[in-house]
Sequence to fold (319 residues):
Amino acid sequence: MIMYEFKMRLKYMDYSDKLNGYWEEGYHYYMEFRNEKLIVRDYRRRIELETNVSYDADRLESGERTIITLENNILSRTGDGEMMSEIKELAYENDELKMLYNYIVMGETLYTLTKKDGGPFSHIIIRDEEFIDKLQGVWEEWSINGKGKFPLVITGNSVYCFGSKKKFHVVSYTYDNDNVYIVPEDLTLNDFGGFTRICVYPDMLTTTMMVYDMSMPLSVFARENMLDKIEVPQAAKQVPVNVMMNRNTHNPDMASIGMMGMDQFIQNINKKEEVDGNIKNKPVNNAGDHIKFCPSCGYKLPEERLKFCAECGERLDKY
Fold:
């Protein structure tokens, strides 16, 4: 009798190794299954959802289409707490995951995820042991008029610069082994108080800054005895470039005041209502036409065709 009950328990599986592991959609979404646990990440590999799941593991193992039930399927909510985006249905089918995504602004989109070796950060090579010792100490800011006012200081695996102190990793990417970068220790972030990352060169460190659509030139740091010897990138010698108005973005922000100047900021604010109104009243793009505004966020697109929106990441080649 005991043996019979044991065999009966073996007959029905709770979870399947066919599903357990790491799945990629390729750009928008990444999933990890660990038995009853599901982690969903966005395009930056940040966690959007952690929840429990259930499904018919025997059905899945047999190769049949299998619905995966999520205890929580909400990916994002509005400020009022209402659902903004959700996983409407998740199913295993033909060794793929089919995710029916629903966004209240755009409606439904079907994403296909395939199983991959590794995990969400398998494209990143951590090179701390190779580089951290070489980076220790003070790096002086280069300026066109000589040494700048704000040094960059590295102590252990912490970097301090312009009032921001954060822990970091030294990394390169599997598709770009030769270039080395300092990035935040939390690999889901890309910010050092405004810097997206710090590039490592033999005799200097360089930084770039993005604030919304504001592209700032390189900042350069070097050892004090190398300030007059390094070959400074030409971009670091240029004045800040305000691309906000050129790209007709409709999202000026207070964070940009220091870079564009108060007068320019006020001009942008005055134009905001007009630009927003044009976007809201924009007719639906006709089939076959090159879309001029992102259907997801309203961002004005350049003339050349893009695969993804630079503002929100929406896939554009499907429109």
Residues 124-237 form one domain. The radius of gyration is 25 Å. The chain has five helices and 20 strands.
